[in-house]
Design brief:
Layout: H1 3-8, H2 10-32, E1 38-42, H3 53-58, E2 83-87, H4 98-105, E3 109-115, H5 117-130, E4 134-143, H6 147-157, E5 163-165, H7 167-176
Parallel strand pairs: 1-2, 3-4, 4-5
Length: 186
């Protein structure tokens, strides 16, 4: 949910308000139920030394450290106590401290929202599944600039690797679960 992606894609730009609304609704519900929120953002050095191979080959400068484009959309409701993970590849798990953050939280389930479905969402969800997390994807909180690959990814993941639920369904699940560490989606 970084500024560069929404400013560089008219497809994502058109979905911005709806995605922000869904993600903010989830964040509010998680806070109401005392559940942590982890924001993930991507950034690379201006010389692209830490960027992935395609970016270096094509000299693609996107989500560059120190630029507004590498920042999470300002209209997303972030709080000072929220965890922020900075990643260098599609998966939020790859060479980040997300494993250790989640180990401290002991979630039985995690909820994923964001962009791009076919890349960052897909690899993060698969990596979470590989770590034996029950994964829920906020169906109305994901999007991609590439509709075909978005649809293929949803078809591939849904019901096998993750459950796709709408924000309202996730909020209802949060409200029904008994209190207790690890009992609610994170």
């Amino acid at each position: 949910m970084l500024l560069d992606f929404f400013e560089r894609s008219s497809v994502l730009g058109a979905r911005r308000a709806g995605l922000v609304g869904s993600i903010n609704e989830l964040a509010r519900a998680f806070r109401r139920h005392g559940q942590p929120i982890i924001w993930v953002r991507q950034e690379f050095r201006p010389d692209l030394e830490d960027a992935f191979l395609e970016m270096r080959r094509k000299n693609l400068h996107v989500t560059i450290a120190g630029t507004d484009g590498a920042e999470i959309l300002p209209e997303l409701e972030r709080h000072p106590g929220d965890e922020v993970i900075v990643k260098k590849r599609y998966s939020a798990f790859f060479r980040t401290n997300l494993d250790s953050v989640l180990a401290g939280l002991e979630p039985s389930c995690i909820v994923v929202a964001g962009i791009n479905t076919h890349a960052c969402v897909r690899t993060t969800v698969i990596d979470a599944y590989q770590r034996d997390y029950d994964v829920v994807v906020a169906a109305d909180g994901i999007a991609s600039y590439d509709r075909v690959h978005h649809d293929v990814t949803v078809d591939y993941l849904n019901g096998k690797i993750a459950r796709f639920l709408r924000t309202g369904e996730i909020v209802a699940l949060l409200a029904r679960k008994p209190a207790g560490r690890g009992d609610r989606p994170h």
